[in-house]
Amino acid sequence: MSETKGQTAIAHTNIAFIKYWGKADPILNLPTTSSLSLTLNEYYTKTRVEEADEDSLMINELKQDSKRVHEFLNVLREEMGDFPPLRVISENKVPLSAGLASSASSFAALTAAVAKHNNWDLSLEELSCLARRGSGSATRSFFPDFAIWDKGHDDKSSFAHHYDVPNLPIALVVCKISGTIKKVSSSDGMRRAQTSPNYDAWVKESAKQLEDMKVALQNADLERVGQIAEANALAMHGLNLTATDRRFTYFNQNTMKVMEEVKVLRAKGYIAYATMDAGPNVKIITSLEQAEDIKAYLTERFRKIQFDIATPGPGISYE
Ligand code: PMV
To answer: What domain range is 97 assigned to?
Structure first.
């Protein structure tokens, strides 16, 4: 029996230290700011595409609504030339409860699998550019360790690239706080955040923070990396609280409690800085050396919250 023709790609998720939070063009997914992220080893999506009678989507063996994937595949057909319908089979190793953007690894893996399946000869930057149309954060999931998504000014100039950082012993302690508040999608959240009177100031400050972050990374100054990332994340969440269109927050009580403990950990001399995305979970930036201690400390205080340690991860790969 011949095997169904197909292609498999693996992409790891990433966590932004300088966030993408707002669109200059919602159709092309052009961002208002450039962003910088760390790819994580522990969380990934493995996606296989096979020719089929219609576009469809399975995640972790369950059939899913394929509207978003179908629309994205149609964008690829428009940009790159037509190709037959695809069955998309995804294995998602991104715990949704960890509040890590599974859309980042999902759309990166899907773009890479489709490109390979169709024998498109594209660079990682060109793949990143295409993946942007599915999800902004996916632009950064093609690269190992650190990546920068340059905001660009049009469809062709907005993509991510690898950012080389000499030997940084970094780790994240990921707090899996379960979300009980109503979820605001990242697109809706951005739209509303952009109505904050502080939005323009945030865009300006973010450009400065990106430059400061590059210096801190080049100096392997983990403390400073954490400070800048925490300030950037808190300002992003401040936009949500000050939105004039239905202000909101992704934080819940546990988010606040863990953030308080992050300060306590700092007072004890640990490197510990918090970053949060479109959910209640806190990711603590620390050193490889201190991660286990911090995990143990927090596990002791929050019996119902699970903590993972995440480390820098690889770029896109194929099977
Ligand atoms: O592109 P999206 O829809 O996955 O948006 C990502 C937004 C944040 O995760 C909050 C920030 C970021 O830069 O990843």
So the answer is: 6-165
CATH code of the domain covering residue 17: 3.30.230.10
CA distance 35 to 19: 5
Indicate whether 149 and 183 sit together in one domain.
no
As for how many domains the chain has, the answer is: 2
Q: Whose CA is nearest to atom 1 of ligand 1?
A: 136
Tens of pLDDT, residue by residue over 107-144, are 999 999 999 999 999 999 999 999 999 999 999 999 99
Average pLDDT over residues 225-243: 98
Residue 81 and residue 224 in one domain: no
Ligand 1 pocket list (CB less than 6 A): 16, 19-21, 35, 101, 103-104, 135-137, 186, 277-278
Distances (CA, A) of 288 to 140, 167, 295: 23, 12, 11
In the reported structure, the alpha carbon of residue 176 is separated from the centroid of ligand 1 by a whole-number distance in angstroms of 18
Spacing, Cα 261 to ligand 1 middle (Å): 25
Quick one: pLDDT band at residue 1, thresholds 50, 70, 90?
Answer: very low
What is the position in ligand 1's atom list of the atom closest to the CA of 104?
4
Nearest C-alpha neighbor of 47 from the set 3, 129, 100, 106: 106
**Model pTM above 0.90:** yes
13 vs 315: CA distance, rounded Å: 10
